[in-house]
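The protein record filed here.
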Amino acid sequence: MQFGIFSVSDITRDPVSGQTPSEAERIDAIVKIARKTEEVGMDVFAIGEHHNPPFFSSAPTTLLSYIAAITKRLVVTTSTTLITTNDPARIAEEYAMLQHLSKGRMDLMLGRGNTAPVYPWFGQDIRQGLPLALENYNLLHRLWREDVVDWEGKFRTPLQGFTSTPRPLDDVPPFVWHGSIRSPEIAEQAAFYGDGFFANNIFWPKEHYQRLIAFYRKRFAHYGHGTPEQAIVGLGGQAYIARSSQDAIKEFRPYFNEAPVYGHGPTMEDFMEMTPLSVGSPQEVIDKTLTFRESFGDYQRQLWLMDHAGLPVGKVLDQLELLGGEVVPVLRKELAARRADGVAEAPTHELLVQAKYGDAQPRQPRPNANRGDNVTGSSPYQDSAQPRAAALREN
């Protein structure tokens, strides 16, 4: 079981101090939060991808590469990478590079994104969101598993003899989670490929996510990847922790009331009752989180959102001390004791390498500049020698 933190990278006014951090301050804060996540014994740090204010994380691979460089065991990931508005060839290249730089301490979560203007900014139509997600991931999946790809689809130019570089570390593609808050089609996609399904259950009642996760588990088994109980599930959550529930509720209320996402709606107490939001003492957060297993079955990854709604970085770091020091150790013990036999472990690069190679040495592609591409030795000009020669003569 993996535990960690995810951020949506919002830059929000602190309703208590009245101050809004600068982009520089917020980026510096997220690096401190990632460091603290490892320091207090948690496993995963995730950052979203956004291309519009009030968010700053437009380049998650750059940020995650830096975080990987200043940590030792933390798994870095996304929440989410936009499979719809990114070129899958660029995703293949950028995240393979992150995989190498982090020595395998990474994976990624793919999603459609829910910010409508982003689609036209990157030349796409939001009405094609689902077909884009399906087609683009089909290509990404191939680019990480086939050394040379010929491909043609609807939403981008064809590829002929394309080799994505660098090749995945150990010739083992990064593990992929498909993140969704509402779409059974994305759960179906995750099941078809045998990938993980991340249900970001931070807003809606548990019954909605029970249906999505049950559907994913059923389809995972249908496609022959294992039993429904062996499917790979991740869950989101939100928490604010203090020594007493009274202090937690008093401290968090002004942030909840003014939060851009759920402020000015249901009361905090109603929201806590209807959703996974936990505001209370360490024991109350433990008790609430343990109900997730009762609702969704055994799962592999639990991430919490804790740095949103204008909370200053000092308060977030205090939260992480309580989460990593008092909540997660109990959850590790309790969830391990309740875990059914045969449930899959949380996916890691080491486990994926072992599953592919056993005791054998992993394959490492070796480029040879004198032989054309880095795997087959074929030249991109081998079928066009005359046009190439003519171009050289003209220059």
User: Anything to note?
Assistant: Residues 2-394 form a domain with the TIM Barrel fold (CATH 3.20.20.30).
